[in-house]
């Protein structure tokens, strides 16, 4: 079968990505084989392609951790999904026995690894073999392309829970990449009274935020984000800031835009430490909380919310659809050249 394999940092300043023929996986006890329908390119994959400083990947590995498809085989001992079922993959793999795993906080397991990042092959392949516990059935109301967005949507969903976000609250989402936009969708699903999105420049990402119904889209290249938020909230600030950009100045913006006693949720992949004025954290008595991926409640809750329409409009996040043959030239290279013209690129193997 065809697959996109990552062989590590090349010496060209780019990750060594190859589309090649590999053996089809064979199902073993406790695993499920998936015919992949759609798989999304994640910003983390793109960091590997661009050979950025931070890497948690263990090549060689078939990439792809945001995918959905149809179950084509199940191993012995698997009874929660059956052949022919439509599923989305929660790519975290973990020890299942430590103090964190047994309470459902497997996202902070010391043995955490990720399908399509570490030792198990991912969704940029015609077929993927994954541990059975990573497989979630989807209702028929969730199409496969949106199924490939369940993973990034669930990142936003976890952020809502970490920020204790709720009905009637106000929010600023910093960044309009895929996670910024899925966070916007989740804030709406949690019945926010007002959600603004700040973007670094005009372009496809800012446009998508507007189409998805952000109450305000603030272009930080031409507008003082904190001043704009203060004007929109009559000087109060927002209840919760969701930081998804990882930009050096982002925590300064977040601290300025959040209300007294408010909460900042950090969802970004930070490539370098960023300044944070802890005197303001004290004076405003802020809560700053990390939000890493997702834990036990998130996938089922997010899939249900997509299925019943509380999360809607997610297709606006998909800006490009390509086949596996074009994944490098039409996906990674295009995104590396100009992120702001694209949001989520989906690949059909
Ligand atoms: Zn990812
Ligand atoms: Zn564990």
UniProtKB/TrEMBL annotation:
Pfam families: ADH_N (PF08240), ADH_zinc_N (PF00107). The keyword Lipid biosynthesis does not apply. The lineage of its organism: unclassified sequences, metagenomes, ecological metagenomes. InterPro entries: ADH-like_C (IPR013149), ADH-like_N (IPR013154), ADH_Zn_CS (IPR002328), ER (IPR020843), GroES-like_sf (IPR011032), NAD(P)-bd_dom_sf (IPR036291). It comes from freshwater metagenome. This is Unannotated protein. Its cofactor is Zn(2+). One of its GO terms (molecular function) is zinc ion binding. The keyword Secreted does not apply. Keywords: Metal-binding, Oxidoreductase, Zinc. GO terms for biological process: butanediol biosynthetic process. Residues 13-347 form the Enoyl reductase (ER) domain. Belongs to the zinc-containing alcohol dehydrogenase family. Gene3D superfamilies: Medium-chain alcohol dehydrogenases, catalytic domain (3.90.180.10), NAD(P)-binding Rossmann-like Domain (3.40.50.720). One of its GO terms (cellular component) is cytoplasm.
């Amino acid at each position: 079968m065809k697959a996109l394999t990552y062989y590590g940092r090349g010496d060209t300043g780019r990750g060594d990505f190859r589309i090649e023929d590999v053996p089809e996986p064979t199902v073993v006890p406790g695993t499920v084989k998936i015919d992949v329908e759609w798989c999304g390119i994640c910003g983390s994959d793109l960091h590997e392609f661009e050979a950025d400083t931070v890497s948690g990947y263990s090549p060689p590995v078939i990439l792809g951790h945001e995918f959905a498809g149809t179950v084509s085989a199940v191993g012995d001992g698997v009874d929660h999904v059956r052949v022919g079922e439509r599923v989305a993959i929660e790519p975290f793999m973990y020890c299942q026995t430590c103090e964190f795993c047994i309470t459902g906080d497997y996202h902070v397991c010391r043995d955490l690894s990720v399908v399509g990042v570490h030792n198990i092959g991912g969704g940029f392949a015609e077929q993927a073999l994954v541990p059975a516990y990573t497989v979630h059935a989807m209702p028929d109301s969730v199409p496969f392309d949106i199924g490939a967005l369940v993973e990034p949507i669930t990142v936003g969903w976890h952020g809502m829970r970490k920020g204790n976000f709720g009905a009637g609250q106000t929010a600023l989402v910093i960044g309009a990449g895929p996670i910024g936009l899925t966070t916007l969708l989740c804030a709406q699903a949690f019945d926010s009274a007002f959600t603004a999105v700040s973007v670094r420049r005009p372009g496809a990402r800012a446009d998508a935020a507007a189409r998805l119904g952000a109450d305000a889209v603030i272009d930080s290249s031409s507008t003082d984000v904190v001043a704009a938020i203060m004007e929109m909230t009559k000087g109060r600030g927002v209840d919760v800031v969701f930081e998804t950009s990882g930009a050096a100045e982002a925590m300064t913006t977040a601290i300025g835009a959040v209300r007294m006693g408010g909460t900042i949720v950090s969802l970004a992949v930070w490539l370098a430490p960023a300044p944070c004025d802890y005197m303001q954290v004290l004076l405003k008595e802020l809560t700053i909380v990390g939000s890493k991926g997702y834990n036990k409640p998130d996938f089922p809750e997010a899939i249900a919310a997509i299925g019943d329409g509380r999360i809607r409009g997610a297709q606006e996040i998909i800006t490009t659809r390509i086949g596996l043959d074009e994944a490098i030239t039409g996906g990674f290279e295009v995104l590396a050249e100009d992120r702001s013209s694209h949001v989520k690129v989906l690949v059909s193997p």
